[in-house]
Recover the amino acids of this structure.
């Protein structure tokens, strides 16, 4: 995704092509005024689909478990960021009005950059889920509080009318999402689900713009609400969102190319002391606020300490608020608007890398998605083509998945699997099994050593017996494993082991300690990635 932004920057009026003189086919295709409207429309559609996907992450069954903790983290991060940024702007300008409005511009995160980056590396785990939930809450807070701050700072607009429109957009999105959930009960095919997802997002955006043209913020709120309603009202929502994401990915590519094209890199040179203060205060607020919230929620062990770094992306929402600020108070807000544009450029360039780094350091990204495969070139390329041609003609027998021929279990395993202690109660066992998404749950002893696994077959007998549910603990349900996977085993051997046990996942153990869990789908994905 960062490459798309850089390519767009290079092809934009603020990049390399500013040195190109005259009209060329390339500058006309990418820089001409005729492309501005379509690229803006594509960008709005892409943001709509991204907010639709972020809303889907707010599942009530998940929020009931981690909601209070996420609220503590997000509230602490939003509050500290707002305080530090307001103080920095007040010191830099001496204008209390700019200091009052600046927090709304600073707390907003970039949902597009965050979600797409996490999807690119297939991140999965508590830190990834917390990032998405915090980004959603950041933008909700920014969009809802901005109209009120505008009235207090500049006396522009009606806060009650703006709040009413925001609530109406949320309610409309919820209704459209519920209608989509009802419709989904009568369809099952992939094509029909993709069409339904497209119609929901396009319908929501169409309703918002039909009522109030140009209301991008309201469209984002409505798409978020539609995704939230659909994901909580339909058991098939996860399948729809997976199919839809693969379909609309080209929109994301065009969106980030356009975002790179519109980056005003020269704004960094004119940011001045105020720009440095704003960027430093926003960074400190996100980093320290998230860390403080984790401590308040007593969730320091389960999340990456770098969680705040993954919230630094800043783009579309902040720029939308800057545009609204410009139309309401063009003269009074000029200095702050220039600083926010410079901040967006800075965080748009480094933000995706920070999101990726946060997920990787949390152990929620498979090594196969981090380590790039060596590309063949020159004579090596000719040799591989010749070997593939002979194999296709049946002239040679080869097993591309043989030991030593490609990635190992280490590259495909999930490095931070959900585990449970031997002393855990039956209720905690059931909750952990449901949250892990795997058919076996690894069990660890008090010293952190690997003790075995629990599967649904072991818990089903106690599930319907109230007496047993109150007596058994995780240790009573644990099955010792004498043939766990080793990190350096081949993918073929791992699949054969799973076939023998008739399971979809199996623990990976090294020196008596659990180092990951291998899933069948991840092994096949690593094979496909290696041989394509």
């Amino acid at each position: 995704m960062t490459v798309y932004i850089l390519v767009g920057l290079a092809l934009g009026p603020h990049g390399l092509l500013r040195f190109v003189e005259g009209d060329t086919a390339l500058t006309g295709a990418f820089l001409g005024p005729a492309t501005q409207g379509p690229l803006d429309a594509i960008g709005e559609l892409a943001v709509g689909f991204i907010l639709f996907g972020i809303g889907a992450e707010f599942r009530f069954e998940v929020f009931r478990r981690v909601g209070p903790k996420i609220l503590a983290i997000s509230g602490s991060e939003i509050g500290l960021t707002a305080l530090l940024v307001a103080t920095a702007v007040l010191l830099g300008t001496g204008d209390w009005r700019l200091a009052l409005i600046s927090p709304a511009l600073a707390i907003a995160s970039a949902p597009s950059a965050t979600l797409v980056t996490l999807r690119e590396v297939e991140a999965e785990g508590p830190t990834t889920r917390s990032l998405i939930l915090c980004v959603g809450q950041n933008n909700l807070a920014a969009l809802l509080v901005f109209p009120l701050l505008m009235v207090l700072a500049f006396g522009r607009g009606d806060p009650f009318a703006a709040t009413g429109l925001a609530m109406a957009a949320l309610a409309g999105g919820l209704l459209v999402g519920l209608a989509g959930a009802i419709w989904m009960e009568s369809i099952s095919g992939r094509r029909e689900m993709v069409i339904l997802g497209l119609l929901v997002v396009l319908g929501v955006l169409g309703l918002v713009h039909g009522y109030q043209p140009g209301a991008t913020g309201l469209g984002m709120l409505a798409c978020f609400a539609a995704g939230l309603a659909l994901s909580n009202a339909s058991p098939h929502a996860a399948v729809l969102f997976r199919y839809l994401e693969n379909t609309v990915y080209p929109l994301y590519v065009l969106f980030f190319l356009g975002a790179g094209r519109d980056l005003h890199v020269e704004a960094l040179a004119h940011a001045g002391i105020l720009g440095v203060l704003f960027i430093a205060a926003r960074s400190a607020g996100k980093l320290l606020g998230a860390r403080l919230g984790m401590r308040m929620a007593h969730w320091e062990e389960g999340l990456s300490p770098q969680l705040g770094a993954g919230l630094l992306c800043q783009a579309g929402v902040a720029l939308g608020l800057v545009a609204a600020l410009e139309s309401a108070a063009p003269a009074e807000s000029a200095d702050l608007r220039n600083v926010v544009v410079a901040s967006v450029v800075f965080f748009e360039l480094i933000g995706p890398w920070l999101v990726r780094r946060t997920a990787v350091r949390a152990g929620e990204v498979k090594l196969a998605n981090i380590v790039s495969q060596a590309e063949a070139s020159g004579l090596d390329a000719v040799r591989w083509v010749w070997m593939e041609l002979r194999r296709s003609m049946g002239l040679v027998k080869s097993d591309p998945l043989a030991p030593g021929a490609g990635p190992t279990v280490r590259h495909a395993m999930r490095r931070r699997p959900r585990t449970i202690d031997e002393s855990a109660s039956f209720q905690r066992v059931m909750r952990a099994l449901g949250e892990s998404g795997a058919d076996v749950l690894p069990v660890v002893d008090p010293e952190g050593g690997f003790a075995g696994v629990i599967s649904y077959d072991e818990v089903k007998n106690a599930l319907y017996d109230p007496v047993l549910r109150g007596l058994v603990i995780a240790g009573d349900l644990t099955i010792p494993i004498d043939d766990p996977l080793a990190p350096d085993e081949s993918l073929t051997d791992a699949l054969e082991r799973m076939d023998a046990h008739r399971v979809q996942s199996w623990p990976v153990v090294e020196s008596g300690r659990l180092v990951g869990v291998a899933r069948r789908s991840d092994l096949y994905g690593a094979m496909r990635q290696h041989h394509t």
About this structure: The first helix runs from residue 2 to 11. The chain has a mean pLDDT of 78.
